[in-house]
Amino acid sequence: MFRALASVLLCCFFLEASYWVHFSYGDLTTCSGIVPMTERGDKISITDFGGVGDGQTPNTIAFRKAIYRIQHLRRRGGTLLFVPSGVYLTDSFNLTSHMTLYLARGAVIKATQDTSNWPLIAPLPSYGRGRERPGGRYMSFIHGDGLEDVVITGENGTIDGQGDIWWNMWRQRTLQFTRPSLVEFVNSRGIVISNVIFRNSPFWNIHPVYCSDVVIRYVTILAPPDSPNTDGIDPDSSSNVCIEDSFISTGDDLVAVKSGWDEYGIAYGHPSSYITVRRVTGSTPFAGVAVGSETSGGVENVLAENINLYNSGVGVHIKTNIGRGGVIKNITVSELFMENVRTGIKVAGDTGDHPDNNFNPNALPYVKDLTLKNIWGVNVQRAGWMHGIENATFTGICLSNITLQGTTGPRPSWNCNAIRGAAIEVSPQPCAELTSIEQSGSCASHS
Ligand SMILES: *[C@@H]1O[C@H](CO)[C@@H](O)[C@H](O)[C@H]1NC(C)=O
Ligand SMILES: *[C@@H]1O[C@H](CO)[C@@H](O)[C@H](O)[C@H]1NC(C)=O
Ligand SMILES: *[C@@H]1O[C@H](CO)[C@@H](O)[C@H](O)[C@H]1NC(C)=O
Ligand SMILES: *[C@@H]1O[C@H](CO)[C@@H](O)[C@H](O)[C@H]1NC(C)=O
Ligand SMILES: *[C@@H]1O[C@H](CO)[C@@H](O)[C@H](O)[C@H]1NC(C)=O
């Protein structure tokens, strides 16, 4: 009952928010200009290739043929592949450069639940193995490798991963390899994903890895709160990523910026940088805005602003571990509102597992310059949990204009060690580690 009511409230808030976005402000700040939206002169429909949207007929050959045609005819300005209203069941498939996958209103591209023929691909070099299981990993449902100029858009059609079969394998510990993401781009640039609904991903939803110039906006990402590791968007060893105007409600972090895992990520050495997350609303048992825990290539220049979170585990979570190495710096979160959240702000140097026993325990992460400002929370159980690493104190942490109200009973508390920083206008009063005089300069210059 309560849950039903909460989802009605969420839905209506969201509708109201998008109304506001569209009609009240013509000049909202946006980063989406980094990838211009391309008009395609050449248009084809999946039905021209035998596609049938009855929810039963396999469309794998239709998608592969259509995309083969785009790849080999190479029409000037690229080609739009139209998917009309209907439910198109298919195996996973690869996209190609200079194409738009267009889902009309009422179009659903649905992943097969026959997992036995799901293709396996090599592990990412920055992870050394599959994230969940050693060895290779299942290819994402919709995959792009080494591409440029790719758009996935339309009229809010749906990409449905039918992930429950995979979640059950995870729960029953019968997974042989790492579960597939819903959409993954590897080594690609000039990617736009907009006006699409993503549902029930087997694993992470949208995973741009080794990519640059990526825009993800006006997307809705939904998976049940108890679905394992269904992260919303994970920019990974990628730069110039713009995530805006989206609603995400999943079973794991809504947005988590990553850059590889322990010794493999350190060797690969590819950071995530210039990541913007703006006007995102949602709910998760884990974190709203996260960095980590796989940060071995480094994460810097992240800006998250105008974030609204409800019924969530953690508001902001910066997480790393010994063995990770990597530099995490210049992370700013501002204008964050949260309601019904267990922990407002969490910074942790002991989070996440290791790929194997060859990680170097002396490879400590270096965490510096985290700015958290203009944050308001109600019904927050614990204000802050901020634990750096002994001998690798996290510094330059600036908290300013933060009010976190509890429920009834004691005021939400702060718990800190191995961190240094400053706090201005923070309520309740933060821990002593955040009131350093010599650190207050960095706080002022960021505000
Ligand atoms: C799809 O891409 C993956 C990764 O690049 C590749 O291993 C696989 O062979 C491709 N599959 C098809 C059917 O082209
Ligand atoms: C699709 O959904 C977005 C919200 O994510 C909304 O702003 C947009 O107007 C919708 N577009 C259509 C064609 O319904
Ligand atoms: C910090 O990151 C922000 C947001 O990406 C960027 O605009 C700014 O230039 C960065 N500052 C420094 C000192 O690199
Ligand atoms: C403090 O933060 C709130 C949002 O939580 C914002 O509305 C207000 O303008 C901020 N105040 C200042 C002085 O920036
Ligand atoms: C921290 O440094 C001290 C002095 O170098 C050393 O004795 C101690 O073992 C170190 N602690 C850890 C957890 O590495």
From TrEMBL:
The keyword Hydrolase applies. SUPFAM superfamilies: Pectin lyase-like. The keyword Signal applies. One of its GO terms (biological process) is carbohydrate metabolic process. GO terms for molecular function: polygalacturonase activity. Coiled coil: none annotated. Transmembrane segments: none annotated. InterPro entries: GH28_Enzymes, Glyco_hydro_28, Pectin_lyas_fold, Pectin_lyase_fold/virulence. It comes from the Eukaryota. Belongs to the glycosyl hydrolase 28 family. This is Polygalacturonase. The lineage of its organism: Eukaryota, Viridiplantae, Streptophyta, Embryophyta, Tracheophyta.
